[in-house]
Every structure is written in structure tokens, then in C-alpha cells.
């Protein structure tokens, strides 16, 4: 599974190094060099995690994250900065940061921190995405389990369920579903989405997936 990261960093070499390294571990990276670019990217897309430098053009990384938090965005964020005094560390956490790593840093340490935050915020443990006490997704095998029993679920059902659970409590738009379930060369069938949704409702109950008319769906289990 590919998780989407926004990386705000004005050092071109470090930005490219982070993308090259993280892409090897299947993270899809969006790269921006200023606070304004970062805000625009966040308003146009959804991300699983933010990597934020503090000293960037337009606004500081602290101000960028505060703006998102004030708008209701709770996407986890890691500050990456050369500021290493206790006041700056405290400011980072008060701005809404989930972690703080000081430059220079080891790339593998950063990877461990990313995995730890995703495990905590999204229920991802190794290759598992925990849905609740009964259900979990095996991300490597693309299978749904109830306890230790594997349930019958086709690939499109799985991909849609993963998308809904990953953004649990938020509306997953039809456009997001189209992008996630179909390649650019495949024909999109609106009726198929309704079939997949109904397949999931048979497992989790009708109340688990809310239809936001004309916009998309929200998973509430």
C-alpha cells in the first residue's frame, strides 16, 4: 500500500534525497518548497502524513501547521529542522506537531518515526490495518479477516474498503474513489461503485458506510 506524504522543505538536495529514499518504501511524496505551496497542496489533496521544515519561505512550518490545525486538519506531522533548542521543540508540539526530528538526521530513523506515527494514528501494525476488535485488513496480501477467518472479498472491494478505513470519519469523494480503484486506461463505471459499497455494507452493516449524496461516502464503524 502506498501512503501519501507531503514534504515541505526548501533545500532542493534534501527534498530530492527524502523523495528518493521514501519512494523505495512505497511512500508517494508530494514536494513543496514554501508554506504557501504547502497550503495549496493540502487544500487540493489529502495526505497521510506531513514532513515539515520550519524555516521556509512565505510562512514558517509552525505557522503552516497551525493554519491547518485551525481549519480542522488533524493529519499527523513531523517537524524536520535545524532548530534544536527546547523553546523551538516546545513550539513545534504546541503548533500541533506529532514528532520533532533535528537535522542532521538518519534517514532510517526518520522512516521508523513515520511508521510509528502511522501505526498509532491509522491502526497500521506491520502489514495490518486494524478496523475494530473483530475486523482487520492484511495490506500485503490484500485480504480482509474477521478474527483469524479470511472473508471473501474481491480486489476492488478491498481497495475501496482500504480507502474508506484509511480516511475513517472523513468523506471519501467519488473522484478519490475513481483515482484509487481505476487506472487511467480503465473505463469507470458508476454502478460498480454502488455494487462495491453494497458488498461492504453486507459485511459491516448499512450504518457503517454513510452515503453523502452527490459527493461520496464516509466510513463510520
From TrEMBL:
Residues 4-118 form the Response regulatory domain. Gene3D superfamilies: 3.40.50.2300, 6.10.250.690, Winged helix-like DNA-binding domain superfamily/Winged helix DNA-binding domain (1.10.10.10). GO terms for molecular function: phosphorelay response regulator activity; transcription cis-regulatory region binding. SUPFAM superfamilies: CheY-like. The lineage of its organism: Bacteria, Pseudomonadati, Campylobacterota, Epsilonproteobacteria, Campylobacterales. CDD domains: trans_reg_C. Residues 126-221 bind DNA. The keyword Transferase does not apply. Residues 126-221 form the OmpR/PhoB-type domain. GO terms for biological process: regulation of DNA-templated transcription. One of its GO terms (cellular component) is protein-DNA complex. It comes from the Bacteria. The modification 4-aspartylphosphate is found at residue 53. This is Response regulator with CheY-like receiver domain and winged-helix DNA-binding domain. It comes from Sulfurospirillum barnesii (strain ATCC 700032 / DSM 10660 / SES-3). Keywords: DNA-binding, Phosphoprotein, Transcription, Transcription regulation, Two-component regulatory system.
Amino acid at each position: 500500500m502506498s501512503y501519501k506524504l507531503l514534504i515541505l522543505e526548501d533545500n532542493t538536495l534534501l527534498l530530492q534525497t527524502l523523495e528518493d529514499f521514501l519512494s523505495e518504501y512505497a511512500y508517494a511524496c508530494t514536494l513543496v518548497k514554501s508554506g504557501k505551496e504547502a497550503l495549496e497542496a493540502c487544500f487540493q489533496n489529502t495526505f497521510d502524513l506531513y514532513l515539515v521544515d520550519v524555516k521556509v519561505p512565505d510562512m514558517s512550518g509552525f505557522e503552516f501547521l497551525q493554519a491547518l490545525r485551525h481549519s480542522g486538519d488533524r493529519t499527523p506531522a513531523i517537524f524536520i529542522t535545524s532548530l534544536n533548542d527546547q523553546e523551538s521543540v516546545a513550539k513545534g508540539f504546541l503548533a500541533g506537531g506529532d514528532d520533532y526530528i533535528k537535522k542532521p538526521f538518519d534517514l532510517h530513523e526518520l522512516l521508523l518515526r513515520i511508521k510509528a506515527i502511522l501505526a498509532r494514528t491509522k491502526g497500521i501494525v506491520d502489514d495490518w490495518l486494524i478496523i475494530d476488535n473483530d475486523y482487520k485488513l492484511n495490506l500485503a496480501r490484500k485480504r480482509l479477516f474477521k478474527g483469524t477467518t479470511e472473508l471473501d472479498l474481491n480486489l476492488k472491494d478491498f481497495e475501496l474498503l482500504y480507502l474508506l478505513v484509511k480516511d475513517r470519519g472523513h468523506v471519501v469523494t467519488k473522484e478519490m474513489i475513481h483515482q484509487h480503484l481505476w487506472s487511467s486506461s480503465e473505463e469507470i463505471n458508476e454502478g460498480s461503485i454502488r455494487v462495491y459499497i453494497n458488498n461492504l455494507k453486507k459485511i459491516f452493516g448499512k450504518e457503517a458506510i454513510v452515503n453523502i449524496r452527490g459527493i461520496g461516502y464516509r466510513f463510520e464503524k
